[in-house]
Design brief:
Elements: H1 8-20, E1 25-26, H2 29-32, E2 50-51, H3 56-69, E3 72-76, E4 94-98, E5 105-109, E6 114-118, H4 123-131, E7 135-136, H5 149-155, H6 162-165, E8 172-178, E9 184-187, H7 201-204, E10 213-220, E11 222-223, E12 227-235, H8 238-251, E13 256-262, H9 265-273, E14 287-295, H10 301-314, E15 320-323, H11 327-346, E16 355-356, H12 362-376, E17 380-385, E18 392-399, H13 405-425, H14 441-446, H15 450-463
Parallel strand pairs: 2-4, 3-4
Antiparallel strand pairs: 1-2, 5-6, 6-10, 7-11, 8-9, 8-10, 12-14, 12-15, 13-14, 16-18, 17-18
Helix pairs in contact: 1-3, 9-11, 12-13
The protein binds flavin-adenine dinucleotide.
Flavin-adenine dinucleotide is lined by residues 39, 74-82, 85-86, 99, 119, 141-143, 147-148, 150-152, 154-155, 157-159, 208-209, 213-214, 341, 433-434, 437, 470, 473.
InterPro entries: FAD-bd_oxidored_4_C (IPR004113), FAD-bd_PCMH (IPR016166), FAD-bd_PCMH-like_sf (IPR036318), FAD-bd_PCMH_sub1 (IPR016167), FAD-bd_PCMH_sub2 (IPR016169), FAD-linked_Oxase-like_C (IPR016164), FAD-oxidored/transferase_4 (IPR051264), Oxid_FAD_bind_N (IPR006094)
Family: Belongs to the FAD-binding oxidoreductase/transferase type 4 family.
Protein name: FAD linked oxidase domain protein
């Protein structure tokens, strides 16, 4: 028999079950395992319990109960975050609060171009339901089959359509949030313009669950872009890719919706993940761009893409190009981009980054960082790619597969240090999209200007003085100010 005095987690589990009811509280270690493991499977943890509320009132009761018991709350959506923001790191005093059962679409309003949705809606399912009403929700990312809108809002997710529609922040009209004291902030307005004082919802967007639990959101919709043209082009350099981007912004009437750059190695990596993937071009060019132009109504998108590519090929900016002539072909082009991620994962543990620098500095940043890493770590391969139109680069480093695990981990640490040094010289951001979580906390902390630290601590202390929400995520918040 287990003594309650020597097993505080056991006591807390009993109390949570009696306060919240059996249905909401999961305590079986096997059942909890998937909530306590990160997406890559690199980190495994545990928790006092996993709470699975069905309503906003349930969430409020869960937060209240945790506060009373001196437990902390780690909110979780689809658990696709790449920086360990939703994975507990203090198993004895943290509970995971999963929003997965709060997945109702409360309203889709095609007349007002808005929808009101619960935090646990899976992004892809939400997009499908909105498309069925002839509307479009532009947020699009590789994890969209699993990530949930509350997680997207809490990380201020980016993705492939940012250059046209903005980050998640620009798609949110209002929020409903359970605060750390269990009260509910009801800000589910669908107003487009509302300048009545400080816009409080902005505090919770990108807060990674450190200020409260997002339970629902009102979001902006746009007309469905029923015409989409997708092309893969080969170029002589990353500099030419930036020139192409500037030309496309100007010549395509700002209808460009995606612009991703990839190295030739992308084809090999994608085929390692999807062996029979058709690739319409040889890996002969130093740089590739996957671009998309889209629109609805009276514009002729196919003609626009065709004429644009003819022009840039005539001017020698693009050396080779293939335009998808069917949805299936377009899908296959996108599978190169998605497959290259899987291909990297198949090569084992590696250094992943998500950085940003000013657009015009992307080529020199990538050249300098890759050179520094190659010189110091000749047994590693750099793979640079990303949402380059936003100045966002994933410069990943794959240690040789021949190296033993421990040495691979050393290469990851060394390459990350070198990358951060180069990034600091370019005044870039060490998190363009993915947030800070627990993974980047030390690097973020080391670079935090004092005034920003003071403001962040003041906001945290004003909203969550008892440090109930996601301690250890983003920053070790200190002291009441
Ligand atoms: P989780 O991983 O569950 O949580 C993320 C953070 O938000 C945690 O700190 C958690 O505590 C907090 N949180 C979750 N739900 C709530 C809530 N309701 N209230 C308060 N806090 C909450 N990201 C991009 O920005 N752009 C990309 O292009 C992109 N591509 C990806 C591709 C792949 C293959 C993968 C695996 C990930 C990718 N990501 C990308 C990262 C990830 O998908 C996003 O960060 C996503 O927004 C996380 O959503 P989630 O529901 O999985 O959140």
């Amino acid at each position: 028999m287990t003594s309650l005095h020597t097993d505080p987690s056991g006591e807390h589990r009993l109390l949570l079950r009696s306060m919240l009811g059996e249905d909401l509280v999961l305590t079986d270690a096997d059942a909890m395992a998937r909530y306590c493991r990160d997406w890559h499977g690199d980190v495994t943890s545990s928790a006092v319990a996993v709470l699975r509320p069905r309503s906003t009132e349930d969430v409020a009761a869960c937060v209240e109960a945790c506060r009373e018991l001196g437990l902390a709350v780690v909110p979780q959506g689809g658990n696709t975050g790449l920086v360990l923001g939703g994975i507990p790191d203090m198993p004895e005093r943290q509970v995971v609060l999963s929003l997965e059962r709060m997945n109702r679409i409360r309203k889709i309003d095609a007349d007002d171009f808005s929808a009101v949705v619960e935090a646990g809606c899976i992004l892809w399912e939400l997009k499908e339901a909105i498309a069925a009403e002839g509307m479009f929700f532009p947020l699009a990312l590789g994890a969209q089959g699993s990530c949930r809108i509350g997680g997207n809002i809490s990380t201020n997710a980016g993705g492939i359509n940012v250059l046209r529609y903005g980050m998640t922040r620009e798609l949110v009209l209002g929020l409903e949030v359970v605060l750390p004291d269990g009260t509910i902030f009801d800000g589910l307005s669908t107003l487009r313009k509302d300048n009545r004082g400080i816009d409080l919802k902005q505090l919770f967007i990108g807060a990674e669950g450190t200020l409260g639990v997002v339970t629902a959101a009102s979001i902006k919709l746009t007309p469905n872009p029923d015409q989409v043209a997708t092309a893969l082009v080969g170029l002589a350099s990353l500099e030419d890719a930036i020139t192409l981007y500037r030309r496309a912004r100007r010549d395509c009437s700002d209808l460009m919706s995606a612009f991703e750059f990839m190295p030739p190695l992308a084809f090999t990596l994608a085929r390692e993940a999807i062996p029979d993937l058709p690739i319409p071009m040889a890996a002969d060019y130093p740089c590739y761009v996957l671009m998309e132009v889209s629109g609805s109504g009276l514009v002729d998108i196919d003609n626009l893409m065709q004429r644009f590519l003819e022009g840039v090929m005539e001017d020698g900016i693009v050396l080779d190009g293939a335009i998808a002539s069917s949805q299936a072909q377009a899908r296959n082009l996108w599978l190169i981009r998605e497959g290259m991620n899987e291909g990297q994962a198949k090569r084992g543990v590696h250094m992943r980054s998500d950085v940003s620098v000013p657009l015009s500095k992307v080529p020199s940043f990538v050249a300098e960082a890759e050179k520094a890493i190659h010189e110091a770590l000749p047994d590693c391969i750099c793979v640079s790619y990303g949402h380059v139109g936003d100045g966002n680069v994933h410069l990943n480093v794959l240690p040789s597969v021949e190296l033993p695990h421990q040495q691979r981990l050393e290469r990851i640490y060394q390459s990350k240090t070198i990358l951060n040094q180069v990034l600091d010289r370019f005044h870039g951001s060490l998190s363009a999209e993915h947030g800070i979580g627990r993974l980047k906390r030390a690097d973020f902390d080391a670079r935090l200007p004092e005034t920003k630290r003071r403001l962040l601590n003041a906001i945290k202390n004003a909203i969550d003085p008892d440090m109930v929400m996601n301690p250890g995520c983003q920053l070790n918040f200190t002291g009441k100010s």
